[in-house]
Amino acid sequence: MGGDASRDVRKRTSDGVNMYEIGRICMKTAGREAGKFCVVVGKEKEKEFVIVTGPKIVTKVRRRKCNVRHLEPVPIKVGIKENATDSEVMKAFEKNEIYKKLNLQKPTPEQIKLAEEAKARHKEKPKEKREEKKEPEKKEKKPEKKEGKPKKEKREERKEKKHKRKEHKKEKHKEKKKTAKKKSKNKAKK
């Protein structure tokens, strides 16, 4: 019972308002993004998780699912809708003067443009690569199965090669021993 009560206190304020509501600014307390600010932009079906974003060009926190145990709410809330885009969040930051309150550097228009271009490139490339990779692999695999030798024959060939290598090593080892004995005899005679 004690554990449940502490979780409830962490999620709600004294008046019962959910601390991890949409638009709540939080500080991440765990992971590589620890110590950075983020905004709650969505809720997951599981009560312990929310979706947060920095936005990335502002606080270096990318949009992701986050456990509420890894967040510390700040008493500042921004008016945004659920699943708001990063640009909408930045506009809300500007409107509520969050950049000054949290001592964050406002991104320049050039940085915003570069981030949008990178996001557009990222969305296009993976789809193309996946389609290109899947088609040739399927075409190449089918003929190999028809033309290739049965598994048993391949296995036997590998065993034979392995056996030959072992025999060859043994012969070399014997030769080395013989030459070593001859040298030791020659040294003893001298």
Q: What is this entry, summarized?
A:
The chain is of the alpha+beta class and 190 residues long.
Explain what this protein looks like in three dimensions:
This protein has helices at residues 2-11, 56-59, 86-95, 98-101, 109-147, 151-189; strands at residues 24-28, 37-43, 49-53, 64-67, 71-77. By secondary structure, it is of the alpha+beta class. It has 2 domains: 2-107, Roll (SH3 type barrels); 108-147. The chain has a 5-stranded antiparallel β-sheet with strand order 4-3-2-1-5, with no helix packed on it. The longest helix has 39 residues, at 109-147. Mean pLDDT is 79; it is low at 1-10.
Descriptive key words:
56% helix; 5 strands; alpha+beta; SH3 type barrels; 190 residues; 2 domains; single chain; 6 helices
Morphology call:
elongated
The figure for the number of domains is 2
- Biggest sheet statistics: 5 strands, antiparallel
Q: What separation lies between the terminal Cα atoms?
A: 92 Å
Poorly predicted regions are 1-10
Give the topology string: H per helix, E per strand: HEEEHEEHHHH
Number of strands: 5
Determine the structural class based on helices, strands and strand pairing. alpha+beta
The name of the CATH architecture of the largest domain is: Roll
Biggest sheet, spatial arrangement of strands: 4-3-2-1-5
Helix content estimate: 55-70%
Rg, rounded, reads 33 Å
Task: State which percent range the strand residues make up.
Answer: 5-15%
CATH topology of the largest domain: SH3 type barrels
Tally the helices: what do you get?
Answer: 6
CATH class category name of the largest domain: Mainly Beta
